[in-house]
Specification:
Elements: E1 9-15, E2 18-24, E3 27-29, E4 35-38, E5 46-51, E6 60-62, H1 71-77, H2 80-86, H3 109-114, E7 120-126
Antiparallel strand pairs: 1-2, 3-6, 4-5, 5-7
Length: 134
């Protein structure tokens, strides 16, 4: 079964008895039964989830771990050697142009998933083997 979900969009929806425009920036729809993908960083696992339809979140959940540091800070902090070590076993770009995407620049995906237990149910945990960064 294919799971398709997108993030960074605006959609008109009904919440709290009102028609509203919901902007999901770095978030995906997590209505009751909605399937979604929450990716980890280039070197972390990802999750297939089912939304619980939490009204207080406007039926939304995160789309990924989120950054722990800015792109600039990551470039100043980590080396290409660090990045290669963090992505060992994952087929991905391992050049200086993606240092800002290194796994250490992101929050711990397990903690992010745990913090959303009222929004989503984890159906599958996926091990990263390939990461395509355009």
């Amino acid at each position: 079964m294919a799971v398709n979900c997108h993030h960074n969009y605006v959609e008109k929806e009904r919440h709290f008895d009102a028609d509203v425009w919901v902007t999901r920036k770095g978030a995906v729809r997590a209505g009751a039964g909605d399937l979604g993908i929450i990716p980890g960083s280039m070197g972390a696992k990802s999750f297939i989830v089912r939304g619980k339809g939490n009204a207080d979140s406007f039926c939304s959940c995160s789309h990924g771990a989120g950054r722990a540091m800015s792109r600039t800070k990551a470039k100043q902090t980590f080396t290409l050697k660090d990045h290669r070590a963090a992505t060992e076993g994952v087929e991905c770009r391992k050049d200086a142009a993606v240092i800002d995407e290194t796994p250490m620049a992101y929050k711990d995906i397990d903690a992010v998933i745990a913090a959303q237990s009222d929004l989503i149910e984890v159906l599958h945990t996926l091990k990263q083997v390939v990461c395509v960064k355009g």
